[in-house]
Structure formats: structure tokens, C-alpha cells
């Protein structure tokens, strides 16, 4: 069963994500219809999205009051991984298999959002002592 706190975080994360990705997807469609390549448009908008959603997710979705720097570094690591998955999927599904980039990118937004929520909840915006504790546990078991 999902806790009330986790459900609140999920709803807030969803609101931030839907608003941000809706605007960014429209910008993606505009840029690609103006002749910018799909991967270039996705790359530019990804950077904009990472910066803006960090602020909203840190302050509102997860109400993280920990140190700004370490959380931002973890956030960037998560989003670099998401970016690479997105780029790889566009290459394989659009370039190699010919699927329409509009549909592929729309599906990727939803898929990556689920992954991003889990990583943000349990790693990026986890309480600092929980992150440190998980590091100690990993090092003790290695």
C-alpha cells in the first residue's frame, strides 16, 4: 500500500511533470516542424526541463530541505541517464525502425516519468541521512 505522503508526492510530481512536459512537448513539435532535428530539439529542451523541474520538485513535490548541491548532482545523474535512454530509444525506434518520432517521444515521456519518480523519491530527494545510510550499507556488504 502506498503511504499518504508518497501519494501526495506522486500527485505533485505528476502535476509538475504534466505541466512541464506538456509545454516542452509542444516546444519540441514546434522546433521539429521548423526544421530542427528530433534529437537536437530533444537535447535542448531536456536541459531546460531538468533545470526547471529540479526547482519545482525539490521545493514542492518532495519538499526536500536538504543541501541543494548534492541533491542537484544526484538529480543531474538521474536525468543524464534518462537523456541517454531517450536518445538511444529515438535512434533505435525512429532512425533504425522508422517509427514516427512524435509518437515515440510521447511514449518515452510517460515511461521515463515513472522511472524518474522512483529515483527522485528514493535517492535524489531522500533525506541526507538515508542516502548516507544506504551508502554505508552498500560498502558493508561489498
Helix/strand order, N-terminal first: HHHHH
- In helices, the fraction of residues equals over 70%
**N-to-C terminal Cα separation, in Å?**
31 Å
- Regions with little confidence, pLDDT below 50 for 5+ residues: 137-142
Radius of gyration: 17 Å
* Major sheet attributes: none
Structural class: mainly alpha
Strand content: under 5%
The total of helices stands at 5
Please count the beta strands (DSSP E, at least 2 residues each): 0
Q: How many independent structural domains?
A: 1
Bulk shape: elongated
The average pLDDT value, as a whole number, equals: 88
Observed structural traits:
single chain, 142 residues, mainly alpha, 5 helices, 85% helix, 0% strand, disordered C terminus
Amino acid at each position: 500500500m502506498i503511504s499518504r505522503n508518497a501519494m501526495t508526492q506522486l500527485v505533485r510530481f505528476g502535476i509538475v511533470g504534466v505541466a512541464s512536459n506538456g509545454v516542452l512537448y509542444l516546444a519540441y513539435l514546434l522546433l521539429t516542424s521548423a526544421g530542427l532535428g528530433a534529437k537536437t530539439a530533444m537535447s535542448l529542451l531536456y536541459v531546460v526541463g531538468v533545470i526547471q523541474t529540479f526547482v519545482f520538485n525539490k521545493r514542492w513535490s518532495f519538499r526536500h530541505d536538504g543541501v541543494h548541491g548534492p541533491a542537484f548532482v544526484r538529480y543531474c545523474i538521474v536525468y543524464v541517464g534518462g537523456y541517454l535512454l531517450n536518445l538511444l530509444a529515438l535512434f533505435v525506434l525512429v532512425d533504425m525502425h522508422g517509427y514516427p518520432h512524435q509518437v515515440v517521444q510521447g511514449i518515452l515521456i510517460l515511461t521515463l516519468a515513472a522511472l524518474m519518480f522512483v529515483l527522485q523519491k528514493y535517492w535524489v530527494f531522500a533525506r541526507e541521512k538515508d542516502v548516507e545510510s544506504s551508502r554505508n550499507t552498500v560498502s558493508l556488504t561489498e
